[in-house]
Specification:
This protein is an all-alpha fold. It has one domain: Tetracycline Repressor, domain 2, CATH 1.10.357. It is built from 11 helices and no strands. Helix 2 crosses helix 3, helix 5 runs parallel beside helix 8 and helix 6 packs antiparallel against helix 8.
Length: 228
Amino acid sequence: MSEAARTAPPRKLTIETEGLDWREREPVPLPATLVAAKHAFYERGYHGTSIRDIASRAGVSLPTLYYHHDNKLGILVELLEAAMTSVLAWVGAAIQSGRTPSEQLSNAIESIVLHMTSDLELASVAHEFRHLDSDDPRRETYVAMRTETEDLLADVIARGVESGEFHFEEDPKEVLRYLFGACQAVTTWYRPSGPRTPAEVAASYALISLRVVGARGHSDADRSPTDI
């Protein structure tokens, strides 16, 4: 079964990824009002941003803004969904392009970190998710896509363990939580003006993820003394 697990195709996606180059990152297309909100939320936070501020930045009147959006919380939901839709598509395409669990995990982590570093403002919107009440039905689409993304990586990790390609003693759920947390934390320190490009940071995190799961050829046990 180990060979079957190693070469088994990843789980099917609910989103289209055909023809998507997950390493090529163009800004996620957004209407002017959402671009303005993205900038404002990043600079001032959700609570520090007023609906008037968003309208002013977008160059539209309040009636026009309300014609297109319910309210400020509705705008936040739209940004969350736009970001998560892109992440799910990129991660799905990244996993599908890998042949083995190691390649698939590496690609997926690289893809997530590219999202975090290529558009800090949009990626940082995820931190504002806490402003949605737990019983708010507007959470459902975002949460479903986030869960699907997590399930994709969980499936890769499970196949890596089953095939013997990954070796670690920790609970796979904790490993997955650690990897996601590390990726999400990139927005707290990365700055485009720094010395490292998005691609360099993403590649570094991809390599680290393989060491975390003890991927064959990447664990400490596989490294010679001269490599340490």
